[in-house]
Amino acid sequence: MSNGPLRVLALVAIAAACVPAGAAAQELSFADVMNSAHAFVVEYEDDLSMVVAEEHYRQQVLDKDGDVEEQRVLLSDYRITQLLPLEFWFGVRVVFEVDGRVVRERTTRTPRALRLASGEDASERFRQIAEENARFNIGDVTRTFNKPTFVLSFLHPGNRDRMNFVELGSERVGELQRWVVGYTEVPVDGSSFIETQDGDHLLTRGRFWIDPTTGRVVRSELITGDARVERTARITVDYRSFPAMNLWLPAQMHEVYETTDTSRHSTTITGTATYSNYRVLPPGIASLSVAWDASLDDNVVGYIVEWGDTSGDYGNASDVGNLTQFRIEGLVEGEKYYVVVRAYTATGTSSILSDEASGVAVVSSGIARQ
Q: Which of the four CATH numbers 3.40.50, 2.50.20, 3.30.70, 1.20.5 does domain 25-280 have?
């Protein structure tokens, strides 16, 4: 690869926060329980980084009398993870069947789509996949936040200044008593977790049912919407232990969207999703090695390699320090990948991208130059 001229670009580094767990159950205060919940969510980030479930998702549109006007069943592969560096939870739903009709080849495109949505620079790829698959939803509500772990982002330590939490008492869920914690979102710099296609910010509120001794969330509720958007939404998720994975994971999500405008045709949209066949997404076994000429600029101290399966569209990146060669691991054998490199200086400035190189991932490969 050849080096392009340097241009200054701002770089931002974000560090994740962590909090300790709470005390013994009989001595717990509200602060203890919340600290345990914050710590639980932080630990969740690593546990779910490569977990995929099969989602069976039934949606219905009901008229004012409760009769079904339209319904649809989606089967999807669904990955749940935290999206860095934005520090909020994101779900990647890749629909492969709609009402029994295959809309995507599951054995090849699904793992590839999910795998290529990994990495710290993947936010745009995640959104593209979400919007592409949201087109299969029915009803007049455009939504991409109907994800079972989206609400967990509210408990992340990095978002504590955006939420107000309050103790609401306890309630039995299953065989045990759980603490019920209410929350309301606080607008920060005019932003919110959810916004409409027109850019209106919708604040959230709801409840968490938390195991006080472990901080685990066993049930969550998210409510949003108001008269401005003529809809309210309520999403409830139940979580349970999946022993085969040794993890506490979403088991069922139920959603209801109701109109607030009584002057028009009234419909209610409902959805129920169940999750099964949890497994760890197998990493790709192939790799691609790249090498490039060192920059002639004495201020350069390192390089960032970016790659993806589409020319000009790179959803993955790695800082390789001052090396001038790098092996990209975890790729799909036989797939073609496109690679670029950019240099950076000690002050955080970055070059424009190098000329693009491409190659096919193989199980074993020497270093190739272009």
A: 2.50.20
